[in-house]
Amino acid sequence: MTSIVEKTDVPADARLPTSHGEFRIRVFHDENTGFDHVALTLGEMDGPDPVLVRVHSECLTGDAFSSSRCDCGPQLDAALKTIQSHGWGCLLYLRQEGRGIGLHAKIQAYNLQDQGADTLDANLMLGHPADARDYSIAAEMLTAVGIRDVCLLTNNPDKVESLQSLGITVSERMPLVVGIVAENRDYLITKVNRMGHDIDQTELEIE
After folding, report:
1. What tens digit of pLDDT does each residue of 141-155 get?
2. Does residue 111 form part of some domain?
3. Is 114 a catalytic residue?
4. Which is the catalytic residue, given 71, 118, 133, 149?
5. How many domains does the chain have?
6. In the 8-state DSSP scheme, what is residue 124?
C-alpha cells in the first residue's frame, strides 16, 4: 500500500509553460478578501531597465468566453505576447471582476447597459462606484517578486497614479489598444470621455 504524506509547506510557485513562453506562476492570498491573485513572470525581475508589467483585473466574460463587450481578452493576450517579445516581464492577474464589483453585479450592469446605460452609469445605478478596484495587493505582489521600476502596460492613467501612490515607481506607460470592435466601441468611448482613459480617437473609428 502506498503511503501518502501530506505536505503543508509547499509554496504556490511553479513553472507554467504557455503558448507565449514558459512563465513562472506564483499565487498570493489576500487575507482581507479571501481571493487568490496571480503573478506570472518571465525572466529575471531585477534588470537595470523598467520591468514591463501588466496589471490585469479578472474578466470571466472577456478572458474565458471571448466576449466582445469589452477589450479585456485581447488585452490579456496582447500583454502576454508583448512580454514574450520583450523577453522579460510580469503580468498580475487580480481577482477584481467587473472593476471590483464582482461577477453578479457586473452582469446586472450589463443588463442596464442593454437598456441604454453606459458602463459608468450602470455601476452607479446599482449603488457601486464607477471603479471599485484596490491596487494595494498589486503593489505588494510587485514588491514580493522583486520589481522596483515599472513600465506599465495600460491605457488608464489612474492605474499609474494608484500604483505610484502605493510606492511603486512607474517610469513609463505603454498603451495597450487592441480588440476594438463595433460591440465595445461605445464602452471604450465612455472610458475615454468619462473615465480618463488614453485611447486615440482614430483608434475608435470602426470601418
Report:
1. 999 999 989 999 999
2. no
3. no
4. 133
5. 1
6. H
Residues 191 and 119: beta-carbon distance below 8 Å:
yes
Provide the CATH number for the domain around residue 183. Answer: 3.40.50.10990
Residue numbers of the domain that contains 47: 21-96+133-198
In a domain, residue 206? The reply is no
131 is catalytic: yes
pLDDT at 80 over 80: yes
Residue-wise DSSP of 56-120: EE--IIIIIT--SSSSHHHHHHHHHHHHHHHS-EEEEEE--HHHHT-HHHHHHHHHHHHTT--HH
Structure confidence at residue 200 (pLDDT): 83
Hey, which residues does 36 pair with through a beta bridge?
Answer: 29
Does 156 score more than 70 pLDDT? yes
Q: What is the pLDDT of residue 1?
A: 56
**Active-site entry in 131, 158, 185, 186:** 131
Return the amino acid letter for 200.
D
